[in-house]
Amino acid sequence: MKNISFSSLALCFLFFFLATPTPGNSISTLDASTIDITNRTCRKCAEDSKTFSYDFCISSLQTIPVSHVTNLHGLAIIGMELALENATNTISTIKYLQTCGTLDSFALAALQDCLELYEDTLVTIVDAVAAFLTEHYSVAEVKVSAVMEASTTCEEGFSEKKGSGFSTDRRE
Hints:
Organism: Salix purpurea
Strand content: under 5%
GO molecular function: enzyme inhibitor activity
Family: Belongs to the PMEI family.
CATH architecture: Up-down Bundle
Structural class: mainly alpha
CATH superfamily: Invertase/pectin methylesterase inhibitor family protein
Helix content: 55-70%
Keywords: Disulfide bond, Signal
Oligomer: single chain
CATH topology: Butyryl-CoA Dehydrogenase, subunit A, domain 3
Pfam families: PMEI
């Protein structure tokens, strides 16, 4: 199964927004062109990434009603909001795992590192949204890229111990 996160969804939308000029770029009504923006964006992101899933992108956006009536700018914001929600949920999961009492000291230490990384990502995502809304797109891109590194760094912390058998992928 592909390892994908909402932060990669946010980064993909941000890249696609920056690379695709759109006249007007304003909120539109629900029509074929709006649906096409979502499909084209998800397809382009999936084509340009080894880890990005078109199906994941579409299914993530289908749960957000406003995504059906937005433009690329809106999709980028939605992607960052999804990343914020995912980071918050990940923090809750980490805190739960730390209290369940069944993990060894290595796993607990790795979880603590992950907790610190994800707590930092909350601030970084909020900063990315602020940068994006003030049209500092390159700053937003750097911040979203940093957020993506948190999940990779967290995963690597668990792989340092051979045979730990612990996976940070909650979809398994």
